[in-house]
């Protein structure tokens, strides 16, 4: 039956492309790309009045196009092509069973006018905006309550033109929380791939309350002193795969989150089953991978491997505080190469930064089963600063087969550990007493799961885009 349906689908596709007709109406555009799902209907932004001159506002063109294409959601899906040009736009939202394809010479430029950014409610798990109380500007590309959304290209660009927003942030002139470049909420089956994201007003990619998310082949660039320009922030998401990304930014390259204090505890939605691999990060003032600081819904089963860190503040950082509640557990990191770091490993139990003063001082976060192995670091100021919470120590920490080369101006004491418990083996320089050495024969002591997460088995296929003269 399935084979027959497939045959029929191919037959229909071929006849609709039939040679006689296409001779009369030549194909204007044709290309192939990789995606988890292909689409039946195609359109170009220019079909809806888009003007790529860098000055004309295209919000209406984007929204008209996508609203029009949303009629195909239950009928094979649709794709919108953004051709070469500079496409100024305010925030627009996407739809289900939909692909946005951005050509490599296309730049989607974020408008500098606040009126082009609708204001939406704060996230329920945060209780307020990150920059201000109350609402937040909707992201440049926004989606909510969707299924099967692909935002891709052959390395097309989203440019948030963030400078103005950063100035407003520094001068306390924001009326609402700054927008992100891409935010997808309450959605399932998301692919964000083969794009370059530059100068985001704030975070770059924010999947939240979503599942089955793939972020692949993304380049993220922002000045290293730009405020809160986090790279990719999976937030209360299940089954996420982040791979082959290159990030240079002013904040954490990947920041794993799940809500803030009493709001996050009440919402109770963890981030779990997260794969991060083949990531290269430069983040002089922040972490390569941060877990927290907002983690009140819990963070569980994170697997990171083949990470390159250059000139970054810390490699893996766990940030939490009394009042956060939640947990960070079953964290596995291996094969990380670090060059020029302040701290290879950092855990902070008194990060502070509360949503408001109504947090529960008895809500103690749990940090347990954290495994780091097979790493080499060079030119490091301090190997590790691991500070747990006195009445809630961080336990089950395992560090094995890690060699840390210290900088000329390194701290005299390379490890400083308080309120933690765990083991180590084959680690240089010698770890603190709270991580007793089990001997080099246990060099592979720290575990890394051998099974695959479901998101690792999702395959991409070759899709085609073609558009005939209207
Ligand atoms: C876009 O969002 C607005 C509300 O913000 C909604 O009315 C509209 O239906 C959405 N369009 C699509 C295509 O999802
Ligand atoms: C989106 O989904 C959330 C969570 O299921 C729900 O609370 C909300 O009402 C939905 N919003 C819309 C516009 O359907
Ligand atoms: C994409 O473009 C960025 C910015 O120009 C560049 O640094 C990166 O190498 C490109 N990626 C690919 C895969 O071509
Ligand atoms: C997208 O990026 C992947 C690597 O993540 C690469 O294999 C693929 O060729 C790229 N596709 C396009 C259309 O650029
Ligand atoms: C080592 O790190 C310092 C900053 O801490 C930097 O100035 C120096 O260039 C680095 N040296 C090497 C060899 O990378
Ligand atoms: C130790 O880690 C290095 C990478 O840093 C790796 O090449 C080596 O195989 C590891 N050794 C063991 C015994 O796992
Ligand atoms: C280690 O950390 C503790 C707690 O932050 C601090 O009080 C102490 O001074 C540190 N010790 C060294 C040697 O840096």
Q: Could you name the ranges where pLDDT drops below 50 across 5 or more consecutive residues?
A: 1-22
SS summary, helix count: 5
What kind of assembly state do the chains in view correspond to?
single chain
- In the CATH hierarchy, what is the architecture at level 2? 3 Solenoid
Q: Report the structural category.
A: mainly beta
CATH C-level: Mainly Beta
CATH topology: Pectate Lyase C-like
Radius of gyration: 23 Å
| CATH homology group | Single-stranded right-handed beta-helix, Pectin lyase-like
Hetero groups: 2-acetamido-2-deoxy-beta-D-glucopyranose
Q: Tell me, rounded to a whole number, the average pLDDT.
A: 94
**Apparent shape:** globular
Strand content: over 45%
Question: What is the number of beta strands?
Answer: 28
**Percentage of residues in helical conformation:** 10-25%
- Largest sheet, strands/sense/barrel: 20 strands, parallel
Distance between termini? Answer: 35 Å
Tally of distinct domains: 1
């Amino acid at each position: 039956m399935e084979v027959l349906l497939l045959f029929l689908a191919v037959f229909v596709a071929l006849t609709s492309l039939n040679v006689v007709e296409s001779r009369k109406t030549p194909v204007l555009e044709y290309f192939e790309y990789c995606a988890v799902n292909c689409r039946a209907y195609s359109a170009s932004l220019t079909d809806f009045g888009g003007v790529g001159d860098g000055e004309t506002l295209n919000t209406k063109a984007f929204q008209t196009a996508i609203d029009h294409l949303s009629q195909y959601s239950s009928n094979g899906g649709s794709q919108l092509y953004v051709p070469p040009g500079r496409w100024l736009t305010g925030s627009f939202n996407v739809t289900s069973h939909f692909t946005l394809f951005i050509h490599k010479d296309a730049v989607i430029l974020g408008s500098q006018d606040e009126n082009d950014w609708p204001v939406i409610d704060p996230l329920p798990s945060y209780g307020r905006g990150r920059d201000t109380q109350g609402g937040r500007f909707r992201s440049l590309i926004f989606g909510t309550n969707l299924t099967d959304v692909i935002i891709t290209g052959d390395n097309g660009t989203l440019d948030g033109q963030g400078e103005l927003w950063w100035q407003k942030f520094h001068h306390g002139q924001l009326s609402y929380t700054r927008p992100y470049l891409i935010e997808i909420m309450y959605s399932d089956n998301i692919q964000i791939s083969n794009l370059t994201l530059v100068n985001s007003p704030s975070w770059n990619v924010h999947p939240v309350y979503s599942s089955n998310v793939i972020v692949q082949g993304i380049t993220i660039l922002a000045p290293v002193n730009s405020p809160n320009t986090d790279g990719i922030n999976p937030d209360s998401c299940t089954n996420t795969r982040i791979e082959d990304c290159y990030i240079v930014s002013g904040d954490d390259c990947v920041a794993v989150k799940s809500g803030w204090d009493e709001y996050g505890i009440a919402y109770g939605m963890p981030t779990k089953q997260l794969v991060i691999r083949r990531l290269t990060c430069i983040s002089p003032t922040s972490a390569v991978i941060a877990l927290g600081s907002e983690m009140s819904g819990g963070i569980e089963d994170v697997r990171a491997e083949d990470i390159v860190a250059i000139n970054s503040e810390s490699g893996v950082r766990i940030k939490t505080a009394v009042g956060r509640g939640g947990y960070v557990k079953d964290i596995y990191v291996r094969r990380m190469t670090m060059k020029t770091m302040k701290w290879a490993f950092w855990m902070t139990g008194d990060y502070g930064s509360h949503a408001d003063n109504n947090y529960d001082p008895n809500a103690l976060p749990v940090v347990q089963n954290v495994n780091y192995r097979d790493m080499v670091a060079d030119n490091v100021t301090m190997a590790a600063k691991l500070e747990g919470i006195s009445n809630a120590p961080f336990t089950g920490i395992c560090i094995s087969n890690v060699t840390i080369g210290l900088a000329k101006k390194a701290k005299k004491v390379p490890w400083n550990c308080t309120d933690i418990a765990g083991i180590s083996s084959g680690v240089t320089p010698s770890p603190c007493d709270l991580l007793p050495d089990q001997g080099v024969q246990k060099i592979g002591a720290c575990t890394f799961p051998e099974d695959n997460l479901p998101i690792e088995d999702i395959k991409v296929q070759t899709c085609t885009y073609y558009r005939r003269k209207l």
